[in-house]
Design goal:
Shape: globular
Structural class: mainly beta
Number of strands: 5
Largest sheet: 5 strands, antiparallel
Order of helices and strands: EEHEEE
Distance between the termini: 30 Å
Strand content: 35-45%
Length: about 80
């Protein structure tokens, strides 16, 4: 099952986030993330994210995501691991 997870990487100025859409099994997400991106990321966790407007001065055509509460408008469940750069 882990091989079937699609892992995306979001690179920010101060961090990298690996994420899988939906709240999936943590063990499978960990295996998929480390298999695709190697070790060095913390154990993933279940969070909520939504698409957001780009900050002033950044690429307004890029898709931006932000962590949000579960009840926020357009919130989507994701399984994510974040490390500081």
């Amino acid at each position: 099952m882990a091989g079937s997870l699609n892992v995306d990487c979001i690179v920010g100025e101060h961090h990298e986030i690996l994420l899988v859409e939906g709240h999936v099994d943590i063990e499978h997400a960990t295996t998929a993330m480390s298999g695709e991106y190697g070790p060095g990321f913390p154990v993933p966790e279940h969070i909520w994210m939504r698409y957001a407007d780009a900050p002033e001065g950044d690429d307004q055509d890029a898709l931006w995501r932000e962590v949000c509460p579960a009840d926020a408008p357009n919130a989507k469940p994701v399984t994510a691991s974040c490390k500081q750069c």
